[in-house]
């Protein structure tokens, strides 16, 4: 796919700025900032990738020095995926892009006319208008790029279905991992009320937590449209990233010889926290608690509010801890520190 993009060198047809930059777009109603930071999953600062998607990372690391290669390599590949997705979307004519990602009723209000979409629909063998969600955009964009080669010009259905299958597998894997983590959290939370639930190998508790987790995200999908649900997912995802950066900053303050290294976590944390709060407040005011909006949902609004309150509590607690660590004088390593240093030297 990457080699094909370099060979074909598709033109970017989407303008750098549109009339929807300040908001009111047919896909995402909010302005570019802060919504660009919470609606792009791949290539973004992602809490899901950090906490859930990194479960296999320890299996790739034999020594401490491997961490830089594995972590940096993963980020670069993830960024590459994001660039490929953006190329696929922006290589489409703007009217074709909006025709795919907006409902037919909304698209008619834009005053645009499709360009290549009828031809692509005929080549692929299905009507592509109004297929919101992003997967179809990626598939159509990549198909339109690869079929420009003469020996691929009859393979539009294959490329389209291949990309759809690729993304479906990716999404199902994410749902599987996320549901499993949600089950663990449910068991841990309700286990405070009923102790057997904390036992992850207790079958009734596992079934109960799994059903509850599936019902929760299933209800959210059933009760709202994809644009409002995706933003809610983005907010929760980036708040998880905030927690990850808080943990990283705390570990650096505790272990690093130069405490100023914590700025590598603090700077993105500050940007991310402001961005997520701005987007979440906008969604609560304009969408979730606005009866006139199609995405009106008291449940989504309450969930957003709960997440923001919890994030404030975590951040305030972290700031108090950081202040203590910053003012703390350097002390001898002690038994635990010596053990940690010995273990680190052994691994290196």
UniProtKB/TrEMBL annotation:
Lipid bilayer topology? Multi-pass membrane protein
InterPro entries registered for this protein in UniProt: CstA, CstA_N
Q: CstA N-terminal domain: from which residue to which, for each copy?
A: 2-276
Q: Where are the transmembrane segments?
A: 32-52, 73-92, 158-179, 200-222, 228-253, 260-284, 296-319
What sections of the sequence does the record tag as coiled-coil? Answer: none
Q: Which GO terms describe its biological process?
A: cellular response to starvation
Provide the protein's localization. Cell membrane
Give the record's keywords alphabetically.
Cell membrane, Membrane, Transmembrane, Transmembrane helix, Transport
One short Pfam name that applies is: CstA
Could you say which protein family the record assigns here? Belongs to the peptide transporter carbon starvation (CstA) (TC 2.A.114) family.
Q: Which PANTHER family match?
A: INNER MEMBRANE PEPTIDE TRANSPORTER, PYRUVATE_PROTON SYMPORTER BTST
Query: Could you identify this protein by its name?
Result: Carbon starvation protein CstA
Please report the organism this UniProt entry assigns to the protein.
Brochothrix campestris FSL F6-1037
